[in-house]
Model the fold of this input.
Amino acid sequence: MTNSPIKILLIGDYSIFRNALRMLLETDTSLRVVGEAAQFDTAVDIISEETLDLILVDLPDFGGKDLLPFVRHLKIPVLVLVGQHDVEIYQKCLKIGISGLILKEERADTLFRAIEKIHSGEIWFDRTIMGETIRQLVYEKQMLHDYPKAHVTNGLTDREKQVVELICKGMKNKDIAETLFITETTVRHHLTSVFNKLEITSRLELVIYAFKHNLVKMPNGNGSHAGNGRSREAVNALLV
Done:
């Protein structure tokens, strides 16, 4: 039995761009565009009438961030096309739970792969976008807080450093416990010890501290895409 095509709704200001995007998407038989809308408010009827698998949004270069709140409460995965390097927009997309963000300069096969990954329940953020976003968030937090000196990290045990690294990858206590073959209670004990040694009080501060003092490597600005969601979880921690 063949799989049903992924049903997509296109949202974008310009009819020519939507038509071109529709033609491109439908060169792949696993994708089917079931509707188009120029604005978010006109998309509501289509969303209520059609069974959709994904919404593909062409974000305008100007004023786009004002349109994003529309998707905050949608249960349908949303992939946003952006044409500019704007960290503020990246942050907002991450904060409201966008499933994916892709630059318009990317190749068609990258777009197809992003759609496939998102439809399968993963997320998709270009590493360049992810790296810029985390760097900006860390910088902003540094302007607001004064953290302990880096030499304090010398007091962390190897196991505690492993826990810190996994937290910065977005893992929850349960995932950390499974990865390190320890109990969740042990993970909590390690965290308490780390917090006390670094004189911090939350995972948010820990992530920022770890990036600032090179306990973990900053996400690479080059290379492939973040499809497993871990980098995004770290960014979400910063946005809390």
